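Ticket #4471: structure export looks truncated?
Reporter: QA, pipeline team
Priority: medium

Steps to reproduce: submit the single chain below to the structure queue and open the exported record.
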Amino acid sequence: MAAAAQPGSPPLSVVLRGSAGRRRREQIIRAIFFGAASLSILVSIFIVLSLIFEAINFLAQIGLDQLVALGWFPRRGLFDLRTLFVGSVITTGIAILVAGPIGLGTAIYLSEYAQPRVRRIVKPILEILAGIPSVVLGFFALTWINPQLVQRLNPGAEGFNLMAAGIGVGVLIIPLIASVSEDAMRAVPRSLREASYGLGARRITTSLRVVFPAAISGITAAFIIGISRGIGETMVLAIAAGGSGGSIFQLNPFEPGQSITAAIAALATGTDQVRGASAAFPSLFFLGLILFFLTLSLNLAGDVFVRRTRQRY
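Actual output as written to the record:
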């Protein structure tokens, strides 16, 4: 036992720095972690800079009137951005209309209604579904969703269309929205539910008027993640939406079309060099830059909304 300091004696000082060898090892580990973090930042900066420089090169080779044309046919020198933007919005909107209600309903069931044993079985299965390769869902959309669902809704629908691709993307992001929303609802304190039940509220009322508003920030984050995933999806759209060689501008979801990601895949597939118009290759980077700013803006807006609506308990 350490001796107590005598009155009038200098205060005791304890050195807690440890051995020199231990400090050196900690400094080495700290340097490794700092290098890993710095490397990830540098790689991100280089990627963005490469997109910016090539996008500037693309804009220098074309006239601005070429960005508003009959459609997106880069090998012919037609670079209509409206075609790709509308295609991305249509497919993502259809995907959210499919995945939103189903994913949110699944989250409410697992959080508020399912027995613990059922949840332990269903939740891992739901998370496994999120790992299904998108190319598999692309063929599923082409061979089943289109003939069994889309063409029954509209017998005149094309074999490749934006509707089937959007439904396929919706199936892809259902597990993502359901899992994140369920985690947000489970994080709501049990005391709020008990207070609602104590006032005589039913379970459905408690779920929709107490738990849902309390978890709105997490649910919003789930939808933001789902929308970002839908905008960035490539293979489902490249397989099921058609427009592999280009697409004309149209607003009908039952017709073939292209999104930004599918246009990048279609233009860069099949050869080690992108052939056609001289501006075809730089257009890949231009589309990548647009996609980067779209997802960045979406995530920033979602982050602002989440911070404003987040409730701490």
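Status: closed, not a bug. The export was complete when the record was re-opened. Leaving a note from the reviewer for reference: Strands lie at 71-73, 78-79, 247-248.
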